[in-house]
Each structure stands twice: as C-alpha cells, then as structure tokens.
Structure prediction request, 625 residues.
Amino acid sequence: MNQTLHSIFGLQEFRQGQEEIIQAILEGRDVLAVMATGSGKSLCYQLPAVATGKRCLVISPLISLMNDQVAKLNLLKIPAAAMHSGIEGSGDWETDERGRILQDWAEKRLNLFYISPERMAMPEFFNFLKKNPPDYVAIDEAHCIAQWGHDFREEYRGLGRLKKELGCPVIALTATATPEAQQEIVTSLQLQSPLIRVHGFYRPNLKFQARQESSKKKRFQEIVKMLEVDQGATIVYCGTRKYVDELHRVLKECGFPAYPYHAGLSSEEREESHRHFSEDARVILVATNAFGMGVDRPDVRMVIHAQMTGSVESYYQEAGRAGRDGQEALCFLFFGADDAAIQEFFIRESMRSIPGDKQQVWLRHREKKLQLMQRYAYGPTCRQTALMDYFGDREQLTTGCQVCDNCQSSETMPLTTELRQDILMVLSAVARFKTSFGKGVLVDCLQGKETEKGCLYGHEHLSTYGLLKHKSRVELMTLIDLLIRQGYIQQNGFKYPTLSLSPEGIEVMKAKKEAQLPKQLYLDSMNRNKNKALTAEEKQRGRSQKLAAKERLEPELWESIRQWRATMAHRKKVPPYTLFWDRTIDDLCLRKPATLEELSQVFGMGDRKCASFGDELLSLIQKKD
Prediction:
C-alpha cells in the first residue's frame, strides 16, 4: 500500500484513519466511513483498486465531481471512466462513447467506473452490472440515503439491493452523518458487520467564529471588513436568493471580485461564476446552498455564513470547504432570530412534499435539527468540540481547540453585586411569567413600561415589574442574549421565540449556582450596544433639532412649495422627490433665497436645477414673503 501511495498518488503518508479503512476494503469488509471534508475519502476506495488491479464501481451524485475525479485519475495513468447524461451515445459498443466505456468495463480494462444513482435504477444497466460485477462498490455522499438526513435523495434508497444482488463489499462514504444517520445508512445498505469509522472532524487549521447580529446592514459591513483583510478565495453562503443578490450588489459596489450563484440564475451565469471560482486567485462567491457539493478547491481562505443554516450538518458541510490545503482558514457564522424564522419557513414549505402520514414526524425531526443548530450558534463551549460531539468523533480535545471564538474568550466575567442582581432579576422575571413571552415583552416588564400586552396579562402586579427601569433597552437585550448563550434561558419556537428557564437557569436564580459570563464577549457586546444606544440618542437629538427647526418654518410657505413641487413633478412625469426632497423645502423656508446664487446654496439644489426652475421658485418665495 505504501508503495502505491508514494509512486502513484505522490503522497508521503496516510492521513488519520485512511490506512485502516483501506485494509478493511482489501479484506473484503463492508465499510462506513464518516470523514470530514478534506480528510481524503476518495483515496480510501481508489487505492485498493489501483494497488490490486480490482474494479471499483463508484456511485456519485454529481457530474462535475465524476468528471473531476476521472480527470485526476487519468492524469495519473489510472484507467477510469464516468457515464452520465453528458456522455453521448446509446450504448452500442462499436459506434459511440458510452458503448466503448461499457466495453472497457466488461473487458476489465477499467479500475474505477463512476456512475450516478439514477443510472443504477435503470434495469438495462443493472442487468449489465450483474453480468459484469465490480469487486466492490463505493457510495459517495452516502448521507443522501438517510431519510431524516439533511440532504435526502429518493434515488439513493434503491441502492439497498446492491449488497444482495451484486454480492460484493459496499463502502459508504460521507462527510456529514450523525450517529442516527449512520445507523440508517448501515441498515438501508444492508451492510454486514461493517467497519464504522468516524474521524477527521477536528480541523486544527480552521478557526470557527460566530456572532449574533440582527441587522442585515451590520452583517454586510462586517463582511466587507473581513474581505478587505483577506485576499484569497472566499465563499459567502446566504439563506435566500434575495440575500445573495443584495450582498453581491454591495460587494460589487465596493469593488470586490464577487460573483453570485443560486438556482434562480441561468445555467450560463452559474457556469461563469463557477469558472471564476475555480480559476481566479482572488475571488468571492456569494451563494445559496445550490453551490458546494463536489467543490474541490483546496485554498479557500474563508467561508462566511451571512445567515444561519437549518442544521449542523449543512453548516459543517459548507464551512468545511475552507482550508482543505491544511493552511489557516476562517469559518464565520452570523446568526439571529430572523435566520431561525426563515429556516422554519423552509421546513414547512418542504413538508408539503412529504406523505401525509409522515409529515408530523418529519417536521419534529427537522425542527429538532434547527434547534441543535441554534444551540451550536449560541453555545459557549469550544466550537470544534461541539462539532466533533455532534458527529460522534471520538477524538478528545481536553483543552478545546484554543483558536475558536469561545476558546479565545473562555475567561469569565467577575460578577459585581449589581451585575449579579441584574441576572437574578432577569431570570426571576422569566420565571414569573405565567404565559411564555419573548425578549421584547420581558424588557418592557423589567423597565416598567406600560404596554397593551403587559396590562392584559397583569405584568404590573409582578414583583419584578420595573426593577431594572434604570437600565437601557439595549443593555437588557444584551444581557438576555448572553444568558441565552450560556444556557440559563431557553428559546422556544423560531418565528416568534418565547423564553423559559433551563434547569441551570433555575439553579442560578435560586442561588444554588453562580452564573458565568464570558468576559470578552460581555465587554464587546456591551461596548457594541453602547455605540448603538449612542447612535439612537444622536438620532433622537437630531429629530428633536429638526422638530424645533420645523416649528420655526412658515407652514403656508412650506405647503406652497410642496404643492408647486407636486405640480412640476406631474408635468415632468417623475416622482416629486426626484426634483428635491422635503429637506430641501425646509432649507428653502429657512433661507428664503432672493437670488439664483443664494438658491444654489440650498440643500439639494444646484446650478442645473436653478437653471431649470430656479426663477419659478424664487418668484413663489417672494410672493409668500
């Protein structure tokens, strides 16, 4: 094996787990290999065929992936071929390409033969394989067979007959399968006493980070900042086509080499974006999950999720496309309540395609996956450890990865008497609600704010009502978010999440346990929200100044100019604001210009507007003066 590894594949040593899997294949065993992206799954089934001259049938879901693998193998002088819709011919051995490929397989001139699961369902082709069976079958992206997995495909279900009807070992490979999905894969494919190996989910070169941010504008600004620093290849994943288009437009306006990719674009547009991603040294692909499976570029330096995904499997499959070359790379996740609501909408839309008798079970399963994704996003523990635990990787990181945001901010915040009391009051308020409410209602209650909903449920009678009225709304929201992140408060539901105390939260409230808040995250969040509060105060101050200025204006003159603008806009067949904004009317009333030169100094006016209708405006102002 080592000789083949060195001389043919040009590698010096096996990666973790590869040698054990290859040895099991050589011994004729069934195998389930759950290996993270970049762990070298392909080599596991390719090397045994090359080293021993055996024939491997590879079932893969993507044409681009098949073509890429065959091209690489042929470059190494390894006889391999693929058959898919892009290969012309009817199967006649003497007249077309498909026929020649079938003949090469039948006459044992191919080591590896790539086909799609749809082709396996064709009776004529399956009969051909029964007459010309492989020595073993490799099923790539095997998580697609799991009915409750994140990427279920009906055509994969038919692969369960391979073991019995072809009578050869089956190797199932995937980068994302939870223990539950792993068992379903084993059962569906009828694997017999298989070797099951789950590893590679610890990627020491990847730096995982996550940030809660509700503002789309802020997310876009942060993404721009990150892209200004990094100069390599980047993938930015978005949850919707609209989000892709909006972010792509922003990045293009900032001068970035950005390209969009989603199912709403034409095939030519998607191919052009894919070409740039494959060939350009500096490139940013803004995409939905329509882009990704089979992506083989090794030097992706950043994968940014502008919106949260619907499951940990989807997130890791996409984030794992960073740093496949082993060099440092960043995996950054933005998340917020709106993301969960969008994913819940997708889940309920998808449920329509599920048979009626299975819909509720399917819905509960998908909602649980979304809850687990939220738990990962909000979670305070090491990001890599959380992912390893989720997928059942037994490797232990006793001190965490030391590079993710949570490991970097593991120091806890010393609790002052005031902060400890604030925490207890927040938790007590949640406990005293007889009906579940969201964060907004909780803050209203703590601030003693009279609202229709609060009065309806008698919140003014609660002992916690108004206890934190000296705190700003953003301060309380920040504290609540941190308590959610630390697991003391639970969010229930997605579109309009309500709050309840976790068992740990109850212990903290009863003073049986001390609350712990990450110091750096607490300070960063408070500083960020103080800036938001300052901005809000500045806006309010600005509004007050404008209101005072408005009171100094002459209402009759202001209305006359507004009516003149409406008439002129109608004449020119344009919206009124195209001529000038209301702010211009304010300035006209304050300045009351008497000459064209003075008029040109008014906000929103310029030489061309003055030349076009300046005299009319001056005449109107003089008449009202």
Remarks:
- The chain has a mean pLDDT of 86.
- Residues 206-404 form a domain with the Rossmann fold fold (CATH 3.40.50.300).
- The CA atoms of residues 199 and 566 lie 69 Å apart.
